[in-house]
Amino acid sequence: MRWTRCPRLAVGVVAASALWFPPPAQAAPPPDGGLTDLVNPFIGTQNEGNTFPGASVPFGMVQLSPDTGHRTGYDYTGNRIRGFSLVHLSGVGCAIGGDLPVLPTTGDVTETDYAKYATTFSHAHEQASPGYYRVGLDNGVRAELTATERTGVQRYTFPATGKANVLLNAGQSLHRNVSSTVEILDDRTVRTTITGSGFCRSTRPYTVHTLTRFDRPFTAHGTWYQDSLTPGARRSSGPGRNGAYVTFDTTKDRTVEATTALSYVDARGAEVNLAAAHAGSFAQAREAARRAWEDRLGTVRVQGGSATRRAAFYSSLYRSFLAPNIGSDADGRYTGWDQRIHRESGFRYYQNWSLWDTYRTQSQLLSLLAPREARDMAISVLKVNKEGGWLPKWGYGPVETNIMSGDPVTPYLTNAYQQGLLKGYEERAYRALKKNADGVPPADTMYTGREANREYLAHGFAPYVKGRPYAKTGDSDYHHGGSVTLEYALSDAMLAQMARGLGHQADAARYAARSRNYRNVFDPSTGFFRARDTSGAFAGPADPARSEGFHEGTAWQYQWLVPQDLRGMIGLIGGEKAAGDRLDAFFAYDRLMKDPVKTTREVWVHGPYAYYNADKYNPQNEPDLIAPYTYLSTGQPWKTTDVVHAALTLFTDGPTGMTGNDDLGTMSAWHVLSSIGIFPVQPGYRTWGLTTPVFERVDLTLDKAYYPGGRLTVTAPGTSDGRRYIQGVHIGGRSYERTFVTTDTLRRSGRVDFTVGARPSGWGTAPDAAPPVLR
Fold first, then answer.
1. Least buried of 103, 317, 341, 476, by fewest C-beta within 10 Å?
2. Helical residues (DSSP H) of 321-370, grouped into ranges
3. Which parts of 264-363 are beta strand (E)?
4. Which residues pair with 184 in a beta bridge?
């Protein structure tokens, strides 16, 4: 069990400094069955990491967690809890979810606004571990939360009183609550229907249905609408605040347990999910959740590294398994993107697609550690296309939000193809991707897709149109023409490889040619990418640190987003020497080597949303996730290790112990993969870059259906003693000189052994050692 108190913040800062020159290895792995004890769910709950500390199971539909008033749910600096609500997304930057906040109180019920009836608490009385959350509220109630796949389970221990209440607020959420209905069905059961919207700029509504059943009868009840309370009433409905309260006599039996089921289909779905949960008692549900997390975390066993490093690592691994989320009910029904009810067959339906983020790291990690679920997730995305008419960009529940830009669904699905997850679905996936890559969604649909595709196909770039009115809710590709051109070109490169693998040679050549469109936004006069306007003229300031038309970044940060052709990009800026010099300036490499911890925190990081007006590496956001691995293509692979190991010190064991929004496991997956020493340097393809692991040994238990040996072992004896430079690599027992490896090689070998030393070596510096150009 993990307690979190404010003093751990200071501990995290000290530990970060120690990580650069770590203490001697602690070789003994954690005892079997104890990996959940290493996880700190409070990591990322402060400084806009936007994680949540509450209870969920891997990929569960329900994330039962406290809300303190922060727009995305919980903030560690808060001291008032408004309720424990059912739905949270780990690390998103905009409000969504927070449906049905429930709060235990005592005395008379007099307020209906959760901002007014919120109760204070102290972190000294707060615990969290995977699948479990507990807090002692200052109103005298102890609240405990756990979860099953589709239910949230609560246990409240009240003072001895005849007025122990549970408030169920159907009319307030983290997002805009459109309408709600609450019904008290009998003396144990409350049902709600909640319709909400409002993720970032999205306005499309979605509906959730809940059913809450208490373990014993309540003695009184009532409902409210807006500010008006009606004791004894059983129903309230409308566009404003609706809620219900139920009261128990706890003068003798002080404990009340409740299970709340969630469905995105209908009220019957919530009933089915409640019946199927088999939660038993709270203690039984909690133990089942703990076992589920032990099984997941147990697929990766590490040896070596400091205690802080292991805690941070397993906490990131935990967050990597929080999403996407189960979207179907226990009877197999789900609401499709045509807003009709469908039934899954031969797969499990998932939802919540933060694709602009996850296509770079998390989808690859899941393809490695959870391939069966990753396959079902990819099939679910294809169902979105079949039922809704187009592929998604950023999907929440059964609706498209159109948040972020570019074409992230293409590398997401081509990665699934390259990892062997789409067997039997290859051509269906290819047809959907081809339609997406060569067209624009109809105007009367909710999708934006490749919004600027007509201009991109005609002229070879997506134009930057400052201030252009939004055609649909969400983001607009026209507002980010510079970065969107790079994103489209990356997607074209990955689709070309899939087309070639499926025998569509003409398409492959066409998409491969389009993958070079990144050159069309390169400005030779500045040596950087630069957005173009509709006339073709370069737009915005020439200063790459003040550039316009790049989504959540600058031209400095986007200059390396050409993983399909880094050799060509390096040629554009003058060759390896010029590229190396620019990389050194970008990472402040000289300062990094003198004081790595200070450089990471004062030169790289300037605030969680400091995306613009910068000429340095931003480890907090997606455009730069691959950038440290660019040194693998400039003949200086040891510098990748220097930068990656410095960036890893930003992950510590405290509320501020991660960098930037986690974005449904994206940053966490970066941490996990970079710590292991294999990283997807060409997202959408099967290339993994190599760098020194931070652990002496990592054993991954893999699915034998995809990795016949069932294991992948990565060793680096001495890395915990500060010897971080690769002297040599052996794969499957044979010497290996390249700085990358393919999925097929990993499957055949099952082992990567690093020999490390205190100084850089000539390993990986040969001209043919760099990751390949995709043609």
1. 341
2. 355-358, 362-369
3. 300-303, 325-326, 333-335, 341-343, 350-351, 353-354
4. 190
- pLDDT over 50 (residue 21): no
Residues 271 and 262: beta-carbon distance below 8 Å: no
pLDDT category of residue 32 using cuts at 50, 70 and 90 = low
Alpha helix segments (H runs only) across 95-254? 114-117
Which domains are delineated in the chain? 33-295 (2.70.98.10)
pTM of the entire structure?
0.95
pLDDT at 9: 32
Give the strand order in the sheet containing 725-731: 300-303, 697-701, 711-715, 751-757, 725-731, 734-736
To 10 degrees, the CA torsion angle through 329, 331, 335, 341?
Answer: -160
Q: Output phi, psi for 702, to 5 deg.
A: -115, 160
Quick one: 545 exposed, middle or buried, by C-beta within 10 A (0-12, 13-18, 19+)? middle
Q: What is the rounded CA–CA span in Å between residue 472 and residue 478?
A: 12
CB 65 within 8 A of CB 133: yes
In terms of Cα–Cα distance, which of 564, 578, 479, 551 is closest to 517?
Answer: 564
* Residue 403 half-sphere exposure toward CB, CA atoms < 13 A: 24
Contacts of 329 (CB under 8 A, 6+ apart): 150, 263, 265, 269, 272, 273
**Residue matched to tokens 């069966």:** 372
Q: What is the mean pLDDT of residues 516-531?
A: 98
Question: Where are any strands of DSSP class E within 65-139?
Answer: 65-67, 80-81, 83-85, 102-106, 119-129, 132-137
Residue 279 has a pLDDT of 72
C-alpha 544: how far from chain center:
29
Is the distance from CB of 755 to CB of 729 less than 8 angstroms? yes
Q: Are 666 and 322 in contact (CB under 8 A)?
A: no
Q: 73-83 pLDDT, tens per residue?
A: 999 999 999 99
**715: β partners:** 697, 753
Query: pLDDT tens digit string along 292-320?
Result: 999 999 999 999 999 999 999 999 999 99
Distance between CA 731 and CA 714 in Å, rounded?
9
In this structure, of 9-13, 330-334, 361-365, 489-493, the range with the lowest mean pLDDT score is 9-13
